Amino acid sequence: MSKGVLKAPVLQDDEKFALMKFRRSVSDILKPEHDDHFLLRWLRARQFNVENAEKMLRESLKWREKWGVDDLDEWEPPVVFEKYKPYGTTGFDKDGSVVIIIPFAGIDIWGLLHSASKNDIIKNTIRILEKFMKLAYEQSKMYGPEARKFVVIFDMDNFVMKQYAYRPAAELVINVVQMYSNNYPEILKYCYIINAPKIFSFGFNIVKKFLDEYTLSKICIYKHNRNKWLPAIFERIEPRYLPKYYGGELTDNDGNPKCLEKICWGGKIPKEYYISEEDSYNNTSTYKITTIKKGSKLKLYFDVEDSGVFLKWDFKTELYDIKFGVRALNVKTGEKFNEVDLKRVASHESEETGFITCQPNYRYTVIFDNSYSYFKSKKLTYSVVVSLPLEKLEKSANKIEEKILDQNENECEESK
C-alpha cells in the first residue's frame, strides 16, 4: 500500500460552484469531519443537483437520529449476530481501502428472522457499516480519499434462492438495500460477486432496481471460474490480504485457509435461538389489511395461558404515522401495566417490528391508535401473532426442517 496525502478533489468549474452552494445550504447541520469529500458523495449521488443533494442529506441525518446511529457502539446486539452473521475483513487493497468478505450462502435468513426482530437485524447492519466507515476514515488520513471506500467480495458459492422466496426475507433484503442506497452513497469502490450460480441472476435483477447507476457500475459478477475472478481481485488486492481458501496467502495462526479468526462464515442457526415460529417459508396468511378511521382505534386481544410464549408484531402504514402500544392485564389480580408505551411511530417510513416475552395468565392488548387524527384515516398492513409454547415450538421446528430436507432431496433427484 502506498501512503498518500488527502488532496482536494479535481472538479470542473460548475462542480466547484455546486459544491460551494451545497456547503452554504447545509452549513447548519455540518460537523467538523464533513469535508469536501463527504459533501461530494451526496452531490454525485444526485448528479450535482444541489437541491436534491440537500434533501437527501437532511433526510439521511433524520434517519440517523431515528435509528440512534451515533450511539450504536453502546448497543448490545443479540448474540446470534456475532455467531451467525457472515462477514469479515482481511485487510486492505493496494490503495488502503478496507476489504470486506461476505460468504453469502452462510446467511440463514429464515433463522435470523426467527431469532431477532427485523429492526435489530437492520440496526446490526448499520452498526457494521458504521464500524467500517470509521476504519475507512482513519485509513484516508494516511492513504487519501479513495481509502474511504470499500472493496467487497460476495462469495455466492452454494447460494440457494429458496430462502428469499419467503416474503419477510425478500422484504428485509430490499429494505437493507434501500437503506444503504439512501444513506451511504458513493462508498463502494469495487464489488466482486464470485461463484454466482445461474439462479443468482434472477434475484440480482430484482435487487438492482433499488441501486443507483454508480453502485451498479462498481459491481462485477463472476461464475464458478477462479481463473477469471482471481486475477481481477489480485489487480486490487495483494495475495497476503486474501484468504488462502480463495487463492491468496492469508491463513489463521493454525493454518486454517478460511481465516476463521477474521471471517464469520455463518451457517444454519440452531433452533434454541428462535424467538418466533411460522408454519412454512411461504406462510403469509398472518398479514391483514385494514383502514383505521380518523379519531378511532384498533384493539387486538391475546389471552396467554402458557409460559415460554412470545407476542410478535410487524406492521406498516401508508403515507402517515400511527400510535402503537401493548398493554398487559393480569387476569387473576386485575393488575394492569404498559408492556410497550403507546406513542406515535413512523411506520409509513419503515416497517415496525418487535416482540415481547409473555407471562402466563395474562391478557395482552395490542393498540393501533388513530384517535389523535381528526382528518386522516390510516391504511394499516399488520401481522400480530402469539407463538407456540417452547416445547411445541421445538416439535414444529423439527417438522419444518424435515420438510425442507425432503424438498432438497427431491430437487437433487430431479437434477440427476
Automatic annotation (TrEMBL):
Domain GOLD: 277-386
Domain spans labelled CRAL-TRIO: 77-254
Entry-linked SMART domains: CRAL_TRIO_N, SEC14
InterPro entries: CRAL-TRIO_dom, CRAL-TRIO_dom_sf, CRAL/TRIO_N_dom, CRAL/TRIO_N_dom_sf, GOLD_dom, GOLD_dom_sf, SEC14/CRAL-TRIO_domain
Transmembrane segments: none
Pfam families to which the protein is assigned, alphabetical: CRAL_TRIO, CRAL_TRIO_N
Taxonomic superkingdom: Eukaryota
GO CC annotations on file: cytoplasm
Family annotation (PANTHER family): SEC14 RELATED PROTEIN, SEC14-LIKE PROTEIN 2
UniProt name for this protein: SEC14-like protein 2
Organism encoding this protein: Polypedilum vanderplanki
Organismal lineage: Eukaryota, Metazoa, Ecdysozoa, Arthropoda, Hexapoda
